[in-house]
Design goal:
Helix content is 33%, strand content 31%. The protein has 96 residues and is α+β, with helices and mostly antiparallel strands. It has a three-stranded antiparallel sheet with strand order 3-4-5. A two-stranded antiparallel ribbon has the order 1-2. Strand 1 and strand 2 (8-9) form a beta hairpin.
């Protein structure tokens, strides 16, 4: 724990793993985040290459990876929203 002038500050890290499966026309991305509370969240994203497009695997990874991370972000927001509701005993506004 790092101390600031009047309040303690804790540094927390998250570990995100990305994995890709590719063929000539499709890319599949799987994202996994491990949270400090011991939970894990997974999400997937896909990209398809149009037959007239050049074969650029990196671009497919970026699209599929971005989609997987976007899904993961939405799952994290939902988890946080549910935890806020549980702690407060009331229904809060959705986090988006």
């Amino acid at each position: 724990m790092t101390q600031t002038k009047d309040r303690p500050r804790t540094t927390v890290g998250w570990h995100v793993e990305m994995e890709f499966e590719e063929d000539e026309h499709r890319t599949r991305a799987a994202a996994l985040v491990r949270l400090p509370d011991g939970s894990e969240m997974r999400a997937h994203g896909y990209a398809s290459r149009h037959p007239s497009d050049a074969n650029q695997p990196r671009v497919g990874e970026e699209v599929a990876g971005g989609r997987a991370l976007n899904e993961l972000a939405m799952r994290l927001l939902t988890k946080a929203h549910d935890e806020i509701d549980d702690a407060s005993g009331r229904t809060s506004h959705a986090l988006r």
